[in-house]
Amino acid sequence: MGFLPFIKFALICLDALAWPLFALGYPLRASIHAIETNSYSDTEKLVTYWVIFSLISLFEHAFMGMLQWLPLWPYVKLTIICLMVIPHFDGAFYVYNHFVRPCINVHIHTICNWFNKFQGSFLKDYVLAKADKDVKGLEKPIASES
Predict the structure, then answer these.
(1) Is residue 122 packed enough to be buried (19+ CB in 10 Å), middle (13-18) or exposed (0-12)?
(2) Which of 24, 42, 62, 76 has its CB 3.0 to 4.6 Å from that of 34, i.e. a possible disulfide?
């Protein structure tokens, strides 16, 4: 009778117990192994895992308000992480090559030029507004002196 409550407790805490083990523990061990063996393919797969893991973490951080309303989100996240970690599937490498890489390669120069143009117009508008404000601030003391 004492074993059944332990099993129930373990199942209730599955996401809390499995998340660090699968998401951080095994990839950390595999990363250390890849560094020590100088394996280029293992290192490439693990770097893609850490990139996807950080994207998932950023997504979760940005949309936590919405995700807390989804009761199965921790289990969905755990399943995604497990599929990315299992070496047989190469899930992180697949996700990176089919979803992240196409988004990055889509006219990166166009995106950089757009950002630079936006940054330039923003700075120009800011400088002009600041100069206009300073000129208006100087007009009052000059008008009061005469």
Answers:
(1) exposed
(2) 42
The tokens for 130 are 């600041």
State the pTM of this model.
Answer: 0.60
Comparing C-alpha atoms, which of 56, 44, 43 is closest to residue 83?
A: 56
Please report the DSSP string for 76-133 in residue order. HHHHHHHHHH-TTTTHHHHHIIIIIHHHHHS-HHHHHHHHHHHHHHHHHHHHHHHHHH
Query: Which residues of the chain carry a pLDDT beneath 50?
Result: none
CA 7 to the chain's CA centroid: 34
- For tokens 């120009």, name the residue: 124
| Termini Cα distance of the chain | 97
Burial of 63-81, coded b for 16+ CB within 10 Å and e otherwise, reads: eeeeeeeeeebbeebbebb
